[in-house]
Design a protein that fits this description.
- By secondary structure, the protein is an alpha+beta fold.
- Helix content is about 30%, strand content about 20%.
- The protein contains six helices and eight strands, in the order βαβββαβαβαβααβ.
- It has a six-stranded antiparallel sheet, with helices on both faces. The protein has a two-stranded parallel ribbon with strand order 6-7.
Amino acid sequence: MTEFPFEPLDIAACYGTGFTANAISWGTASLLAPPRLRVGPSHVAVLCEFHGRQVWVESTTLCPHPCVILARSINGCQAHLPEIRIHDYVSAGGRVDLYRLSPIEKLSSDESELLTRILVRHFIGKEVTYDLGGALLSGTRLFKRTRLLPSADLNELFCSELVAAVCMRLGRMNRSNPTRFNPACLLRELVRHGTFQFHHSFTRETL
């Protein structure tokens, strides 16, 4: 894969091929969604600049690679080179769709630095763990919209909760409980509001 020009706050929408990934994608499918998101991703990650290059930041328990910042395997918030994580999905028969901020929403240099501080110093540096309970609740269609949904705990984050939290902090998403956003409904919200646009798809054919 040749070097791709990623940008800060790019969102990677990952479509896996295993049982869990398919269950998440089809379990959150919606005919009323934007066409490309009727079947949503099973996982999302966000890009930020670190030491002069863009890194892929995610919260997961399913990555076999050591975090490039902490230099060890992590169950929770971690960073990787985007080329490696894209290859993981594509080599297994899946794909990664890249969503980018609309031109008028592009980050300033100060906002990009803030994004890196949030992701690297707070979430990765403090070894924020994976929020399995929140991930399960985010997949429900009705319960997550009630007052019974637990308050957000940013010391434990699942993948789309992490991305929603930073989008809210940077003013690219209305404030609400980030725990209610699974990968599919997060991307649908951002695309419907015009904040993000589909930019590129990484598949075996495009690599």
